[in-house]
Design goal:
This protein has helices at about 5-10, 10-35, 35-45, 65-70, 105-120, 140-150, 165-175, 180-195, 215-225, 340-345, 380-385, 395-410; strands at about 85-90, 100, 130, 155, 175-180, 205-210, 230-235, 240-245, 255, 260-265, 280-285, 300-305, 305, 320, 325, 330-335, 335-340, 355-365, 365-375, 415-420, 435. By secondary structure, it is an alpha/beta fold. The chain is globular and about 70 Å long. The structure holds zinc ion. Keywords: Ligase, Nucleotide-binding.
């Protein structure tokens, strides 16, 4: 079902007018009330009244994670802390956490977008909802909790972990929909299997999975082992928490961004210019309705692309692809941005390959070379008769096919070397070092 059809299926022309009006308001508010933002805009020579069309968004300076750190804890708020209704924080890798504040109006908006997520994931009012996201300072648990209450679900606030109890509650309370991370969904699936509980024998039908990147292969495995339809939810605390976008069960092909609340751009992280629809780059969000902590052009560090094509579910909101990596992982090869996970995406449907590959980047004089080594799977070596020299006609053919697929996705030519299973060097933990950059940059 569509929770807010009047917004989620709004004609795009109308939506853009709404976005512009809200953008003007949010920039005005931040400029007037946040000295940090005022200073940034002044430095960029932009004033709120310069925002006349949505294209003027590109004139506004970016907000980055470091800005949260530099203004810790409350420097980006538009209201005194005493006017907040709640504070969340995400653990930083170094030092202080990233702090986000919400007014009661912000909490209403947040519940609204999370209700939309649950509805597009298959939930219907009256369904039992097992919320296995962590409750606490982390935004996942409480964000989904209030969204679920708003849409009339029966919430089981079990929080994360304790697989034994999760399984008992799934059986006894009969949740039809569960929210957790994809890796925890797999843990649950394996635990059910170990207890001889068949997928499909529980009332569970839908999974809203997110808070970490995952792949289509993982989706297949989760759906098969849990007997559910699994969709991707995306969000980040700096923007609001969970509820920025969610896939629909109709297509399961990219998460619809709730564009009446969040204005999305994808930029080339190097040039900082917006890229075309379909092109891969860094996701950037501007909040359109948040009071306490509006963010203007927040650079997420997440790599994805946007798809404006109409969707079978009827929503008119653009869809974002899966997160293909982080800007920190980006390689620049012959002037082209390359994300290691694109290699995986390019080769995912090739039946003869294993998921193990390695990228080696070298530089001969001034020219960058990309070598991609990929392990074939056992089935393929068996097909070859158990031996693998690399000279076989089948190997040559497969190499060419891989090369073409990589060229299609990366936009540059890579040298492909196929190797037998288990041949690529593993580190101590059995993990592969996926990228080896031998250039002296
Ligand atoms: Zn859809």
């Amino acid at each position: 079902m569509i929770w807010a059809p009047e917004m989620e299926t709004m004609p795009r022309k109308e939506l853009q007018l709404l976005q512009l009006r809200r953008l003007q308001q949010v920039v005005q508010r931040a400029y007037e009330r946040v000295p940090f933002t005022r200073q940034r805009l002044d430095q960029a020579g932009v004033r709120p009244e310069h925002i006349k069309t949505l294209d003027d968004l590109g004139r506004l300076p970016f907000t980055r994670k470091s800005d949260f750190r530099d203004t810790y804890p409350f420097g980006l708020l538009t209201v005194p802390a005493s006017q907040l209704a709640r504070i969340h924080a995400s653990s930083g890798t170094t030092g202080k956490p990233t702090v986000v504040g919400y007014t009661s109006s912000d909490l209403r908006v947040w519940a609204e977008v999370c209700a939309r997520c649950l509805a597009s994931s298959g939930a219907q009012p009256g369904d039992v909802f097992q919320n296995a996201y962590g409750y606490g300072l982390f935004t996942g648990g409480l964000g989904m909790h209030y969204g679920a209450e708003l849409m009339g679900l029966v919430v089981v606030p079990v929080s994360g972990g304790n697989t034994e109890r999760q399984i008992m509650l799934l059986q006894d309370f009969g949740a039809k929909i569960i929210a957790c991370t994809p890796s925890y969904a797999l843990t649950l699936a394996e635990a059910l299997d170990a207890r001889g509980i068949r997928p499909g024998s529980l009332p569970l039908r839908y999974g809203v999975l997110g808070a970490e990147p995952w792949t289509e292969a993982m989706r297949d495995e989760i759906e098969r082992k849990l007997g559910i339809t699994a969709v991707n939810i995306y969000g980040l605390s700096e923007v609001i928490g969970p509820g920025v976008s969610n896939e629909c069960i109709e297509e399961q092909n990219g998460a619809h961004i709730f564009e009446d609340h969040f204005l999305a751009e994808v930029i080339n992280p190097r040039t900082e210019k917006a890229v075309e629809f379909g092109e891969v780059g860094e996701l950037v969000f501007t909040t359109l309705t948040k009071e306490a902590l509006p963010v203007i052009r927040y650079c997420t560090g997440d790599i994805a692309s946007l798809d404006p094509n109409p969707c079978r579910c009827g929503r008119t909101f653009v869809r974002m692809s899966r997160i293909m990596g982080r800007t920190d992982d980006m390689l620049i090869i012959r002037g082209v941005n390359v994300y290691p996970t694109q290699v995986e995406a390019a080769l995912v449907g090739v039946a003869e390959l294993s998921p193990h590959y390695q990228l080696v980047v070298t530089r001969q004089r001034t020219l960058d070379e990309l070598d991609v080594s990929i392990e074939v799977n056992e089935g393929f070596t068996k097909h070859l008769g158990g031996t693998f020299t690399g000279e076989e006609a089948e190997v040559q053919e497969l190499t060419t096919r891989c090369q073409q697929k990589l060229l299609g996705v990366l936009g540059i030519t890579a040298r492909v070397t196929l190797v037998p299973p288990g041949k690529l060097p593993r580190s101590e933990g059995g993990k592969l070092r996926r990228v080896v950059d031998q250039r002296k940059l």
